[in-house]
């Protein structure tokens, strides 16, 4: 019988496993898909699917209440980054109307060890997808896009999140 | 694209200590998406498993050097048994937080070894549909093992099976066994 000493918390995995698995997926997609735009879209879609399911886990774990304004939502998103990716992006650059903000980070387990091809790939497209999916499940329609990307030579990665509208009726999961 | 490409390449950065952790829920969801992605692109269970193994091999290739440099002071294994123990213990421990449960040698075939794991982390949240009974998504792990062994100089084929949990069947190339014997004789 072997020893079963566990170094990791049962609810955690080694971040390198995530880094490499995600990297392997992206490179597999690039191999199988001709068009980089399609890869970006697929990654966003995968993130969306994950977000749709992650939100439940998030609500169960944090017992969060409904957010009344975007500032609260931004805090929750920040908290989710900490919970799921063990990273802490800064929330900044609020628009004057308070419906648009940026998440800025300089380190992310998804993009460790990545060297980018020069072809317009949005390597981390998973993240905006996940935010969109998760917020849609709490009746918030948002738009997310990258303003700066470290992998493309910028000093930090900046993800812009913009509130579009409140969804009145909950859309069934998994449908566009 | 941009003229200001990042100045420091990944080789200029210090090697991470590998102590970072992320949520299992997130990883499980990502893995489930990977399985779905592969499934959408395959017509048979075999094809799906091949794809999962291929992605696993991509991961394994990158782990091999990383772990030998970091966990073993850059010393590679040259003996077959030690290499297998490296996979069972070091690799599994660092990657999944626990060692694989058992390492066995087939009675009737000296080329074949089994690495047995009762609960593969990767299968934790996966329920296999009845009509796909033979599918084992831990084929992904088998791919990792295959790449680590093969790229480490021990060419082998590794497959995952449902037996005492998950059993990874490692079939080495004849050349590996011959070489290992000649090392013994010296």
From TrEMBL, chain A:
<dbReference type="GO" id="GO:0005783">
    <property type="term" value="C:endoplasmic reticulum"/>
</dbReference>
<comment type="function">
    <text>May play a role in vesicular transport from endoplasmic reticulum to Golgi.</text>
</comment>
<comment type="similarity">
    <text>Belongs to the TRAPP small subunits family. BET3 subfamily.</text>
</comment>
<dbReference type="GO" id="GO:0030008">
    <property type="term" value="C:TRAPP complex"/>
</dbReference>
<dbReference type="InterPro" id="IPR007194">
    <property type="entry name" value="TRAPP_component"/>
</dbReference>
<keyword id="KW-0333">Golgi apparatus</keyword>
<dbReference type="InterPro" id="IPR024096">
    <property type="entry name" value="NO_sig/Golgi_transp_ligand-bd"/>
</dbReference>
<keyword id="KW-0813">Transport</keyword>
<protein>
    <recommendedName>
        <fullName>Trafficking protein particle complex subunit</fullName>
    </recommendedName>
</protein>
<dbReference type="InterPro" id="IPR016721">
    <property type="entry name" value="Bet3"/>
</dbReference>
<dbReference type="GO" id="GO:0005794">
    <property type="term" value="C:Golgi apparatus"/>
</dbReference>
<keyword id="KW-0931">ER-Golgi transport</keyword>
<keyword id="KW-0256">Endoplasmic reticulum</keyword>
<dbReference type="GO" id="GO:0048193">
    <property type="term" value="P:Golgi vesicle transport"/>
</dbReference>
<dbReference type="Pfam" id="PF04051">
    <property type="entry name" value="TRAPP"/>
</dbReference>
<comment type="subunit">
    <text>Homodimer.</text>
</comment>
Automatic annotation (TrEMBL), chain B:
<dbReference type="InterPro" id="IPR016696">
    <property type="entry name" value="TRAPP-I_su5"/>
</dbReference>
<keyword id="KW-0333">Golgi apparatus</keyword>
<keyword id="KW-0813">Transport</keyword>
<dbReference type="GO" id="GO:1990070">
    <property type="term" value="C:TRAPPI protein complex"/>
</dbReference>
<dbReference type="GO" id="GO:1990071">
    <property type="term" value="C:TRAPPII protein complex"/>
</dbReference>
<comment type="similarity">
    <text>Belongs to the TRAPP small subunits family. BET3 subfamily.</text>
</comment>
<dbReference type="Pfam" id="PF04051">
    <property type="entry name" value="TRAPP"/>
</dbReference>
<dbReference type="InterPro" id="IPR007194">
    <property type="entry name" value="TRAPP_component"/>
</dbReference>
<keyword id="KW-0256">Endoplasmic reticulum</keyword>
<keyword id="KW-0931">ER-Golgi transport</keyword>
<dbReference type="GO" id="GO:1990072">
    <property type="term" value="C:TRAPPIII protein complex"/>
</dbReference>
<comment type="subunit">
    <text>Part of the multisubunit TRAPP (transport protein particle) complex.</text>
</comment>
<comment type="function">
    <text>May play a role in vesicular transport from endoplasmic reticulum to Golgi.</text>
</comment>
<dbReference type="GO" id="GO:0006888">
    <property type="term" value="P:endoplasmic reticulum to Golgi vesicle-mediated transport"/>
</dbReference>
<dbReference type="GO" id="GO:0005783">
    <property type="term" value="C:endoplasmic reticulum"/>
</dbReference>
<protein>
    <recommendedName>
        <fullName>Trafficking protein particle complex subunit 5</fullName>
    </recommendedName>
</protein>
<dbReference type="InterPro" id="IPR024096">
    <property type="entry name" value="NO_sig/Golgi_transp_ligand-bd"/>
</dbReference>
């Amino acid at each position: 019988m072997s020893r079963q000493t566990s170094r990791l918390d049962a609810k955690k995995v080694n971040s390198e496993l995530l880094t490499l698995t995600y990297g392997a997926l992206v490179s597999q997609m690039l191999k199988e898909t001709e068009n980089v735009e399609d890869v970006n879209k697929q990654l966003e879609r995968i993130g969306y699917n994950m977000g749709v399911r992650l939100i439940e886990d998030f609500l169960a774990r944090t017992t969060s209440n409904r957010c009344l304004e975007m500032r609260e939502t931004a805090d929750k998103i920040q908290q989710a980054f900490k919970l799921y990716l063990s990273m802490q992006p800064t929330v900044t650059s609020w628009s004057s109307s308070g419906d648009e903000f940026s998440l800025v980070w300089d380190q992310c387990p998804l993009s460790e060890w990545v060297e980018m091809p020069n072809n317009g790939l949005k390597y981390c497209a998973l993240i905006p997808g996940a935010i969109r999916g998760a917020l849609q499940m709490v009746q918030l329609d948002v738009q997310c896009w990258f303003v700066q990307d470290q992998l493309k030579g910028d000093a930090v990665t900046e993800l812009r999140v913009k509130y579009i509208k409140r969804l009145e009726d909950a859309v069934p999961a998994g449908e566009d | 694209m941009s003229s200001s490409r990042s100045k420091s390449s990944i080789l200029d950065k210090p090697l991470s200590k590998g102590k970072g952790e992320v949520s299992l829920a997130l990883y499980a969801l990502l893995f489930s998406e990977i399985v779905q992605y592969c499934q959408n692109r395959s017509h048979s269970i075999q094809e799906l498993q091949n794809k999962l193994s291929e992605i696993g091999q991509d991961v394994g290739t990158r782990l091999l050097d990383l772990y030998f440099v970091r966990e073993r002071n850059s010393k590679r294994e040259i003996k077959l048994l030690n290499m297998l123990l490296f996979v069972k213990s070091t690799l599994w421990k660092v990657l999944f937080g626990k060692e694989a449960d058992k390492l066995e040698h087939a009675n009737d075939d000296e080329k074949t070894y089994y690495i047995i794991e009762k609960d593969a982390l990767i299968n934790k949240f996966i329920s296999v549909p009845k009509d796909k009974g033979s599918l084992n998504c831990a084929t992904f792990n088998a791919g990792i093992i295959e790449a680590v062994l093969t790229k480490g100089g021990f060419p082998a084929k590794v497959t995952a099976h449902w037996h005492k949990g998950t059993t990874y069947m490692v079939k080495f190339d004849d050349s590996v066994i011959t070489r290992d014997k000649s090392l013994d004789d010296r």
